[in-house]
Specification:
Elements lengths: L4 H17 L5 H8 L4 H13 L3 E3 L7 E3 L1 H4 L1 E11 L11 E6 L8 E7 L13 E6 L8 E6 L2 E9 L3 E5 L8 E4 L3 E11 L3
Parallel strand pairs: 3-5
Antiparallel strand pairs: 1-2, 3-4, 5-6, 6-11, 7-8, 7-11, 8-9, 9-10
Helix pairs in contact: 2-3
Length: 197
């Protein structure tokens, strides 16, 4: 469940307040901090954040709001569709969001893609995995990249040679994609995988 900018601000305020005081702000304090016209607005935010799993709300207590520890350690990133680990396929632009453990994300912007195909199985990247990608326009030799070739997207290990780019699969039954430098556009670097069983 993705948050709007304002919902995130309310959640961040409550989280920071709890961190500093070891108890949560009252609804009145939240109202005053954000200048909301009524307590009803505060209650709407609290209801959304509670239903989304971001907050725990003890309705019997004036200071009964607690940030959910599960949500504090995750970050929402866009799930942009599928990527081929095999023959290049067009990446489908979706706008779904997915929660990722913060520990998987470093600096910079990230997005996720669902892996389809078998070309990276020897790297332990299986069809159905969620690949966590850091936005990047260039790569070092040997890194696993999201590359666009002829408007189609693929996940491969990147090698830049003198006059060409080689995109290597991790599957003995498949050959590398060999192209001219200008024919390959890097869209990101693989930083992690999520898998559900």
């Amino acid at each position: 469940m993705a948050l709007t900018k304002k919902q995130k601000e309310v959640l961040d305020y409550i989280t920071e307040y709890v961190r500093e005081n070891s108890y949560s702000p009252t609804q009145k304090e939240i109202q005053e901090n954000f200048g909301f016209k009524s307590l009803g607005s505060v209650q709407d935010y609290i209801k959304y954040l509670t239903n989304g799993g971001y907050l725990l709300n003890d309705s019997h207590s004036v200071r009964g709001l607690m940030p959910s520890t599960v949500q504090q350690n995750t970050e929402e990133i866009p799930l942009l569709g599928s990527i081929a680990a095999g023959v290049p396929i067009e990446a489908i632009e979706n706008s779904d969001m997915i929660s990722i453990p913060v520990s998987m994300l470093g600096r910079g912007k990230h997005y996720a893609l669902k892996v389809k195909g078998e070309s990276m199985i020897e790297e332990g990247i299986l069809s159905g995995d969620i690949a966590i990608i850091k936005h990047a326009n260039d790569a070092q030799n040997g890194q696993i990249v999201v590359a666009v070739v002829d408007n189609e997207t693929t996940l491969k290990r990147y090698f830049k040679k003198a006059k060409q780019i080689e995109l290597h699969p991790a599957n003995k039954t498949m050959k590398p994609i060999i192209i001219k430098d200008k024919e390959c556009e890097i869209r990101g670097l693989l930083v992690g995988l999520l898998r559900t069983y």
